[in-house]
Design goal:
single chain; 327 residues; alpha/beta; Rossmann fold; 2 domains; 8-stranded mixed sheet; globular; binds S-adenosylmethionine
């Protein structure tokens, strides 16, 4: 997967005037601060506009890819749904809105809420260069989620890579608030780590109790069957651009972003039978699948002789199996 051209160009333009060496130094300092645990306190993590540009250049491609993958899976569950409005909370440079317009080009109205003024400035600069008219005319609001903020309901609401930055004691009230402003569909994304997954497991239970219908990734609304330290997460590969490689000092031409997510809706969607939880293991004549199913976690082996062989060959990590595709 590649970043859309307009976003790639906007990212590259934002780095003009900063020498690649300087960017690499800023990015290395950011990595060190991240490892020291400052990432959850943005005031000490991103200190200058250059920090924000370097951070955005290194992280936005991957978080865009994760948001795209989560929204794509959401769209597959309700193929006739065309949202008109999108609200992105903790928007950063507008990553989830860029992903949403790539999935639903018919979006007309985008609202972004973000605390950090430098992020908003950068996000506005990016959005001004977007092909999407909705992104170009998006409304940005500077607000602290911990304080007062008022927004009308929107068809699609997203919260991407934000929950883990907030004190856990605030999660439940925030999720309740997000659901109250969700006209149709709410998607929450976190890093694909044990912690990200645990936060989402609690969010999922809360939303189900509030009457939300699970769209993805779960094939059911029963208690999450993940156990023994395992965690439900997915992976999206994104190509690195030249400048991205230079900043990261990376050799590989791509990176794999691990993410966890939950997507819920006010309307039930058609049933799915299972979700693929790992890369399918292909061997000559057989494919091993690790699935979350209506009956819990299952390991399944599909052989060439099975009726589901053709479908199994086309499956990838994160895909859903429809009831008639079950082996
Ligand atoms: C890791 S970034 C993710 C940005 C974007 N959603 C993405 O996926 O790329 C987290 C964002 O949440 C914002 N944020 C964190 N705490 C916030 C709060 N209390 N109120 C508003 N925004 C907040 C930060 O300023 C930052 O832009």
């Amino acid at each position: 997967m590649q970043l859309p051209n307009d976003l790639r160009l906007a990212l590259e333009r934002s780095l003009r005037g900063i020498a690649p060496k300087q960017l690499a130094t800023v990015a290395a300092e950011l990595s060190a601060r991240y490892r020291e645990g400052h990432a959850r306190d943005q005031a000490t993590f991103l200190r200058t506009p250059q920090d924000v540009s370097a951070y955005t250049a290194t992280r936005m491609p991957a978080t865009w890819a994760a948001a795209y993958a989560a929204l794509h899976a959401t769209a597959r569950r309700q193929p006739d749904w065309q949202p008109c409005s999108h609200l992105d909370i903790g928007a950063g440079p507008g990553t989830a809105a860029w992903a949403a317009t790539a999935i639903w080009p018919t979006l007309e109205r985008i609202s972004l809420l973000e605390r950090d003024a430098i992020m908003i400035k950068l996000g506005r600069e990016f959005a001004a260069q977007a092909q999407s008219a909705a992104l170009r005319s998006a409304s940005w609001t500077q607000a602290d989620l911990a304080g007062q903020w008022q927004v009308p309901p929107h068809d699609l609401v997203t919260l991407a890579y934000v929950l883990g930055e907030l004190p856990q004691s605030k999660h439940s009230a925030l999720v309740e608030r997000l659901w109250s402003v969700t006209g149709a569909t709410l998607v929450i994304i976190e890093p694909g780590t044990p912690r990200g997954f645990e936060l989402l497991r609690a969010v999922r239970a809360q939303l189900i109790a509030a009457g939300a219908h699970i769209l993805a990734p779960c094939p059911h609304a029963a208690a999450c069957p993940m156990a023994n330290g395992d965690w439900c997460h997915f992976s999206q590969r994104i190509e690195r651009t030249k400048i991205h490689r230079a900043i990261k000092g990376a050799e590989l031409g791509y990176e794999d972003e691990k993410f966890s997510y939950v997507a819920v809706s006010r309307q039930p969607a058609g049933p799915i039978a299972a979700r693929v939880l790992r890369h399918p293991q292909s061997q000559p004549g057989r494919i091993g699948l690790e699935l979350c199913t209506l009956a819990g976690l299952q390991q399944r082996t599909v052989t060439k002789r099975d009726p589901g062989w053709r479908e199994a060959r086309g499956l990838d990590w994160g895909d859903e199996l429809l009831p008639n595709e079950e082996q």
